[in-house]
Amino acid sequence: MKRAEWHGLEITELEKSQNPNEAFINAQYTDNVDKAKGRQSRSERAHFVREPKTQAWQYMGSEMIQPGLTPFGTLSLPSLKL
Known about the structure:
This is YchJ-like middle NTF2-like domain-containing protein. The chain is mainly beta and about 80 residues long. It has one domain (about 5-65). The chain has 1 helix and 5 strands, in the order E-E-E-H-E-E. It has one helix spanning about 30-35; strands at about 5, 10-15, 20-30, 40-50, 55-65. Strands 1-2-3-4-5 form a 5-stranded antiparallel β-sheet, with no helix packed on it. Strand 4 and strand 5 form a beta hairpin. It is elongated and about 45 Å long. The relative contact order is 0.21.
């Protein structure tokens, strides 16, 4: 079975909001720095909002799920099909 990925991150859960124009993706990743330091994968929660006119999903930002870790930066993603 193929892994579902978003921006190179393995999607572990797609979380729909009560608002139909909002969604969250929970993803896990391990970057090369993590591997070099022997750390396990990190979890991140990315927030998306659907544009009313185009119906495209826009990336609004993300947060780390595991405490004590910092986000790896801003990602850009023009649209997402959910």
